[in-house]
Design a protein that fits this description.
This protein is an all-alpha fold. Helices cover 68% and strands 0% of the residues. The protein starts with a helix and ends in a 12-residue tail after the last helix. This is Transglycosylase associated protein.
């Protein structure tokens, strides 16, 4: 159980970072948000890969990782789109 959680965090961090590299332009995302997007994409990607039957193959599960990466790219694009208009104001005052 602990190993699965650690592996999800590590794979999520790698998938999230790769997704940010693949999305053109600057993404104003924190490392924590990148990690969350990567973990969610990794978990959903694994479920999809299991459903399609490509999660457990001999060697490296390339199809599973490609699905995870595609979902992470979509996640980064969505987060970037929804947080593009938001700016942080010092002191927490609203406009």
């Amino acid at each position: 159980m602990i190993g699965a959680i650690v592996s999800a965090i590590v794979i999520g961090a790698i998938i999230g970072a790769l997704a940010r590299l693949l999305v053109p332009g600057r993404q104003n995302m924190s490392i924590w948000l990148t990690l969350i997007v990567g973990i969610v994409a990794a978990l959903i990607g694994t479920l999809i890969a299991q459903g399609v039957g490509v999660a457990d193959t001999k060697g490296i599960d390339w199809w599973e990782h490609l699905i995870q990466l595609a979902l992470a790219v979509i996640g980064v694009l969505l987060v970037t789109k929804f947080t593009a208009g938001r700016t942080h104001r010092p002191g927490g005052t609203a406009p």
